[in-house]
Design a protein that fits this description.
By secondary structure, this protein is of the alpha+beta class. The chain has one domain: Gcn5-related N-acetyltransferase (GNAT) (Aminopeptidase, 3-Layer(aba) Sandwich), CATH 3.40.630. 27% of the residues lie in helices and 27% in strands. The protein is built from four helices and eight strands; from the N terminus they run ββααββββαβαβ. Strands 1, 2, 3, 4, 5, 6, 7 and 8 form an eight-stranded mixed beta sheet that branches. The protein is globular.
Length: 163
């Protein structure tokens, strides 16, 4: 996907160091994950089609400015649908409000829509990200143990679409 000078694509093996850099910016405690463990997980996610790991970079530049991570947990014993989760969505703070987060989420939504079975995709938002997801057309679900970190859902079984 290319959007006004922005390229959003599936991560490649050579993106590992940049994704690690971004993940540490996202959650500083991520630096506690040893580089070899990060590399092992990163490589496994790229090889497993039940994971989606898109990255964003300005067209013609090498440095990544964002990444996402989503997982398809698969169908349960009684379900005709699959359940997925967005684990990470991070955009470099210096480049926010330019459409990168939306483009990364659209990549994840397209991936979830293309799964072999309809998917219910869930994620939680930090307090600072709630407005972003609401601007995408989603309604915050504040029921639960942590209402300040509401959940959001995209249900492909009912043809739900973003606004």
């Amino acid at each position: 996907m290319t959007l006004e000078g922005l390229v959003v694509r599936a991560a490649r093996p050579e993106d590992a160091a940049e994704v690690r850099r971004l993940s540490i910016s996202f959650t500083p405690s991520a630096q506690e994950v040893p580089p070899e463990a990060f590399q092992s997980r990163f490589t496994a996610f790229l090889a497993d089609t039940s994971w989606c790991l898109p990255v964003a970079q300005p067209q013609g530049r090498g440095r990544l400015i964002g990444y996402g991570l989503a997982q398809d947990f698969g169908a349960g014993l009684r379900a005709t649908f699959t359940t997925g989760r967005v684990h990470d969505l991070f955009v470099d703070p210096d480049t926010r409000l330019g459409g990168t987060g939306r483009a990364l989420m659209n990549f994840i939504f397209d991936w979830s829509r293309a799964r072999p079975q309809p998917m219910i995709l869930d994620w939680q938002a930090s307090p600072s990200a709630i407005g972003f997801y609401e601007a995408l057309g989603f309604e915050a679900d504040r029921v639960g143990d942590f209402p300040e970190y509401p959940g959001f859902t995209l249900d492909h079984r009912v043809g739900q679409r973003m606004r």
